[in-house]
Amino acid sequence: MQQGARHRKAARGVLWYNDVLMARLWTSETPKHVGKTVELVGWVANRRDHGKLIFLDFRDRSGVVQAVVSPENAEVHAAADKLRSEWVIALEGEVRARPEKMVNPAISTGSIEVAATAIRVLSESSTPPFPLDTVGYDIGEDNRMKYRYLDLRRERMKRNLLLRHEVTLFMRNWLAKRGFVEVETPILTKSTPEGARDYVVPSRLQAGKFYALPQSPQQYKQLLMVAGLERYFQIARCFRDEDTRGDRQPEFTQLDIEMSFVTQEEILQLVEELYVELVKVVTPQHHIAQIPFPRLSYEEAMAKYQSEKPDLRTDKTDKNELAFAFIVDFPMFEWKETEERWDAVHHPFTKVQSSKFKVQSSQEEFIEYIKQSPGELIAQQYDFVLNGFEIGGGSIREHSPKILEAVFEVLGHTREEIHAKFGHLLEAFSYGVPPHGGIAPGIDRLVMVLAGEENIREVIAFPKTGDGRDLMMNAPAEISAEQLHELHLEVLGEGRKSGELKKSK
Prior knowledge:
Layout: E1 13-17, E2 20-24, E3 37-50, E4 53-60, E5 63-69, H1 74-82, E6 88-97, E7 112-123, H2 141-146, H3 148-151, H4 155-176, E8 181-182, E9 200-202, E10 210-212, H5 218-226, E11 231-239, E12 251-260, H6 264-282, E13 287-288, E14 295-297, H7 298-305, E15 321-322, E16 324-328, E17 333-336, E18 341-344, H8 363-372, E19 381-386, E20 389-396, H9 401-410, H10 415-428, E21 436-441, H11 443-451, H12 481-486
Helix pairs in contact: 4-11, 8-9, 9-10
């Protein structure tokens, strides 16, 4: 690029390099500038030598444009001859209409090309470990994840991330227009039994004590209802230390929603309206199989489909068909045979359907019935399913402290354990708690289905392997002896010898 580059008005933004302000134009915008000189920055996707002419497929986030380098400008031609795939360059040239026979309808810039008048190499690239101009399914996943920053350059992966962005942006705007407030809740929190293993974080300042990463913002969003916020949402990160598979990750993202003074029907209606409009605006190529979304009881789903997340598509091979459904009327508890105890089907904060009780009297008798007949209880719980995947779950919450205590007792907790683990919530409920409920649809699985992918790792920027490893960052990894000492920890077994402490150099 010539020194002393001219200042031009940017079409979308500006770029500084070598203390010079340079106008930035996306490649996708070049067809609007026929006959004008433009400046582009991006990657060399491919270089082709056709006799004396050199053709470059020039790529940025918005797409690809063809640049042509003529030997008439010896300096530019020599620079182009040295270029290799994935080099980062700045390119100046005149936008010209292609001859009719040379138009490429397969790309949005196929009607034009850029006649290069200047090239500047901003960064060279080593030869990538795999091709980036394919869909990538034929490449070993471990290799793709090790070099994820390269894998994300391929068109399919970029398209998946942009779709995810559009989905979450639509959700945020849609809910904000309906009076919901987005609130971030803590990542460092307290370990409480919620159905899966917690990831724990040792405290340096409080020796022998641990934070836990949230399996969900469950208690925080309920406390926001106590706080009087009434309508909350969050694009929330959640963490569960459990076995992974194609549609599950150690950390995942969900649309977290909680509302006060709400019924189950109102929550389901809200979700249905949100997803119908989302599909219509963001992915209009999809069609929804049935509106209103079908509602099946848990018993009906199990009896008819032998699944609590049935695939209701009429054509299971049609990836553009979306069969949403709600599964309702779940059992409140399930018996864990191997552990000989009751466990909550959803979570212990779920409200029992009082209309299902055989006893309709005082709260004391109500509580006694819960303790005596846990296997007969039906919860105000609902799951949200799509094409055979559970993409969300929620419930109306129990806001009576006494009934909550009874539920925890059914789950095998002593009163001392209940108040040690949940005393903060029970105390909060003594200060005027509104009836409330919510739902938490997953983002990863939804985008996976909308993108036509078979695995959620294809729609997550930096996912983990099936056994929870990050191959790019090489995590989890050992920490230094000094760090272990500061955290009042020691690793036993094959990790380190007990008490060993080495000074770092």
